[in-house]
Design goal:
Elements lengths: L3 E3 L9 E2 L9 E3 L5 H4 L5 E5 L6 E6 L21 H4 L3 E4 L2 E5 L3 H4 L4 E2 L9 H29 L3 E3 L2 E4 L5 E4 L3 E3 L1 H5 L3 H10 L1 H11 L2 H17 L1
Antiparallel strand pairs: 1-7, 2-8, 3-5, 4-5, 6-7, 9-12, 10-11
């Protein structure tokens, strides 16, 4: 059961924040403001919330649940999605709340949340910024996705891979922007997407799909290393 606690310097002065939980995340939600930095490192794809069926955007970091292929020596590339940065932290009634049982706190090591003076340390400031990015960005991103859907631009993507040891892997439930549908839009619709900034995000998403090959190569290399 989660142990929800209101974050405060008095009760959590000694609490430290570990990034070790990153290694178990194979997918992380992102918002529109994250597309451009995220596209440099990760494939950006759409999927559906299992409860509501609503589309949301995210980055693929691994090909199997519980395994992040992008971590090197426990660290991710230059861009770390806000959804990872805020792991274990939530907003409730305008206040920052933590799940004291979350893995980011379980290690008892990492960066402190508070300075000796009681002020927020850099690790907590990054969490606060990540919470702000998500709080401000989710509704705007939902609106962008609705516009993509209105133009019938989102389609399923077939992600099937075969590795040197003969094993095959298929990722289901992922979607991408259809470039064919995008390029077939009437001029007025394309211009509206361009002026609204949506067109740039569509090309960022489709361009990022090439990183799936990188994930496949890393996965294949680790299979080969494990077989030695």
């Amino acid at each position: 059961m989660p142990d929800w606690q209101m974050l405060n310097g008095a009760d959590h002065a000694a609490l430290r924040l570990s990034r070790s939980a990153d290694g178990t995340r194979h997918f992380a939600q992102i918002v529109a403001d994250e597309f451009l930095p995220a596209m440099l490192h990760y494939p950006i794809l759409f999927t559906k919330h299992p409860e509501t069926g609503a589309f949301y955007a995210g980055v693929v970091m691994g090909l199997e649940p519980g395994r992040n292929l992008m971590t090197v020596d426990g660290r991710l590339p230059d861009y770390r999605p806000a959804d990872l940065e805020r792991q274990g932290f939530f907003i409730a009634e305008g206040q920052v709340v933590i799940d004291r049982e979350h893995a980011v706190f379980a290690a008892g090591e990492g960066q402190p949340l508070f300075e000796p003076t009681g002020e927020a340390a850099p690790a907590l400031k990054r969490v606060q910024q990540a919470l702000h990015v998500l709080d401000q960005g989710i509704a705007a991103t939902d609106a962008i996705i609705r516009r993509f859907l209105d133009h019938r631009l989102i389609e399923p993507i077939d992600v099937s891979m075969q590795f040197d040891d003969g094993r095959q892997l298929r990722l289901d439930g992922l979607y991408t922007i259809s470039l064919d549908a995008l390029h077939a839009l009437p001029d007025a619709a394309a211009l509206a997407l361009f002026r609204g900034g949506d067109l740039q995000l569509a090309y960022a998403q489709t361009g990022s799909v090439r990183h799936l090959r990188t994930l496949g190569r890393i996965h294949n290399d680790r299979i080969a290393t494990a077989a030695l």
